[in-house]
Write a structure and sequence with these properties.
The chain is an alpha+beta fold and about 230 residues long. About 55% of the residues lie in helices and about 10% in strands. It has 11 helices and 5 strands; from the N terminus they run αβαβββααβααααααα. It is globular.
């Protein structure tokens, strides 16, 4: 079996959690929007006892689908990776088993003030790319600018409230106007700067803990691996 086929089999047979992400999860979908799927699979414990370890992530088998092995997913979530944390809060869950439900019950264990650093760091990288677009093409990729504004607002609100909410709600039309190029680049930069400043201000009084609860997550992962080993015995 090829590596791709083996990875796709893991996704098909061992997914514990699958959801829809992207514009559909953010409340920004239009008639032309793709359906982005993300998932988490639990590779059988026996696979870790061979020289060839199972993959930490798999692309496919469906278009716009990407999945992570449970341990890798937890590692990234503990680091407050924006994409990973958002997966745990998707309003559109397509597949979940007992292990997946326990993972979802741990959502608060992953949240911490680390999000300020990681969300801001991701934003800095995206801003650089947008500036490069402006230099090379005279305008940014407006869709990317829209999603960056959404992410910055999400980060600010998360730090303020301690809750991660994906749907943009009343900001939908304002953000879609950015996507259509109806808002000037100068105005987009002003909004980005304001959101960044508001997030910076929210950190000190945030209800989020200083660090994630690694012990709870480690206990969950250990029990998931042990249960898999027992099933394979």
């Amino acid at each position: 079996m090829s590596a791709d086929a083996a990875g796709h089999a893991l996704v098909a047979e061992h997914t514990v959690y699958g959801c829809v992400m992207g514009s559909r999860a953010f409340g920004l979908a239009t008639e032309n929007s793709d359906t982005d799927r993300r998932g988490v699979y639990l590779a059988p414990t026996r696979l870790f006892w061979s020289f060839e370890k199972p993959p930490t992530h798999v692309e496919g088998p469906r278009e716009e689908e990407f999945s992570w092995e449970l341990e890798r997913f937890c590692e990234l979530a503990l680091r407050a990776n924006p994409n990973i944390l958002e997966c745990l809060h998707s309003p559109f869950v397509e597949r979940v088993d007992a292990t997946g439900r326990e993972l979802l019950a741990l959502r608060d264990a992953f949240l911490s003030r680390y999000v300020h650093r990681t969300f801001a760091g991701y934003a800095v990288g995206q801003v650089r790319k947008l500036h490069a677009d402006v230099r090379q093409h005279g305008a940014p990729r407006w869709k990317h600018a829209m999603h960056l504004l959404r992410l910055l607002a999400c980060s600010r609100d998360l730090l303020r409230t301690g809750a991660l909410t994906l749907d943009v709600g009343e900001a939908r039309e304002e953000l879609l106007a950015v996507k259509r190029g109806e808002v000037s680049w100068d105005e987009v930069q002003r909004r980005m700067a304001t959101l960044t400043e508001e997030a910076d201000t929210a950190v000190s009084g945030s209800p989020l803990p200083a660090e994630p609860d690694r012990e709870r997550v480690a206990d969950f992962l250990y029990r998931a691996r042990r249960a898999s080993a027992v099933r394979c015995a």
